[in-house]
Amino acid sequence: MSRAAGPVDPTTTSAWSGLEAITAEFIPDLSRWFAEDPGRVDRFTFEAGDLHVDLSKGLVDDEVLAALVALADEVGLTERRDQMLRGDRINVTEDRAVLHTALRLPADATLELDGTDVVPEVHDVLRRVYDFADRVRSGAWTGVTGERIRTVVNIGIGGSDLGPVMAYEALAAYRHDQIECRFISNIDPTDAATTLSGLDPATTLFIVSSKTFGTLETLTNARLCKAWLLDGLAGHDQAEAVAKHFVAVSTALDKVADFGIDPDNAFGFWDWVGGRYSMDSAIGTSLVVAIGPERFAELLAGFHTMDEHFRTAPLTENVPVLMGLLNVWYTNFLGAETHAVLPYAQLLHRFPAYLQQLTMESNGKGVRWDGAAVAYDTGEVFWGEPGTNGQHAFYQLIHQGTRLVPADFIAFATPAYPLKDGATDVHELFLANFFAQTRALAFGKTADEVRAEGTREEIVPSRVFTGNRPTASIMAPELSPSVLGQLVALYEHITFTQGVIWGIDSFDQWGVELGKQLAQQISPAVAGDEAVAAQQDASTQSLIAYYRRHRQ
Ligand code: F6P
Description:
By secondary structure, this protein is of the alpha/beta class. It has 23 helices and 15 strands. One of its GO terms (cellular component) is cytosol.
């Protein structure tokens, strides 16, 4: 079918009408579906790279899936995907290409943007980052006193923090054993104070990571750290101290120089990399120092594996597409408002936080990319915690509450740290919980089953589990750098798929601007400027007054 120049309103498609008709009659019954359909697990289980993805415990049948794929066809998902991958300016409101996938193309690939092949540029920067990381890791890069670097502090926020810190935690088993990375993001001075606590300036190196190099939090923290460093290294030449203890990652290399960082110590990237899609650019420099260039290259190869799957697999077998479409089904037809991501891997404890920016900054939009208001729900609230901690906190609501909470469960066959409790392999105990939870959510427990356990009749209803609570199970052999790359790329493309169905620009983030502007405007009032305070609304005036009365 030919595509209109603007986004398609998905509610005008025949597939959407078909899905509405299906919804009206839809009675999910996973117990029956499993009993009557021995092929269900095979049909709804997919492989993408090293990821094994079982969607059979989702609230989906063949008819729903076919209608969702038809919806993807009608809104032009594959065309939009191909536009992204070839560098069309699909970030319409910022008039930019969206090419994070170019960051992980192999060196012998080519991708022309405005007449220039971007792949050699990507690999030039990678080589410089790798060389820098090798020097820090080997001790060849020394601080101003001649000592080797022991701590790398990444200063950044949002996409310039969440990706590196998530991956640093996830790949703990691969870290250099003599170099620690720390991360400062919040403008709450407590963050800088506690992160710097106990560090020796002579052995500390700062990486100021900011795409724009204009972010208030990051520049303030960078200045705090610079002052801390120069104070601790008093007596040494200041310019030399900054040169040996500060590097920067940014697209705005002129601003890096203005800050006093030697351009030779700066690593660039490009406006076609969105902040929340940038952990595989030079923004990952702290991670490269931690795990080394070879492992980082494996991470990039993992991303690329998933990109290739997304680019080439038919929609009916395309895991990110199918998961994105299911999310649309749950959001727009079954009324889900949130989506839980539950890694059964302690090392992924920052993964839900990382995904919150990826998904919610991308798809939390109320207008399509041509500016027309949407008349349907978009971006769900993503949240989560590692299992089994979540089991003892919020799973009650997922099992028995009144809301539908689709959940992704993630687990690995081989643990990073195999430990035994006597004869018991603790990882197996852990995985038993992973398997048990999705089973309980899918199939529940009937009143008769509860009664058969001898339960008092009055409390039988409280002990019934309705089941039919949808989950996706994602498994991989182990949490290696490559698998982490595949996992992140999977969610990038799930997010993209949802954005295309909804017709929104998943790559801008205008919604964070107003708060930033107002903070600048209100700042003098907080410091005591009565005239500026008087311009605020009554509630804000009252809150500022409270602050000024109580500040010691
Ligand atoms: O929160 C808005 C945002 O622009 C994010 O998209 C971005 O990741 C973050 O701020 C940090 O921006 P920068 O890397 O330019 O400092």
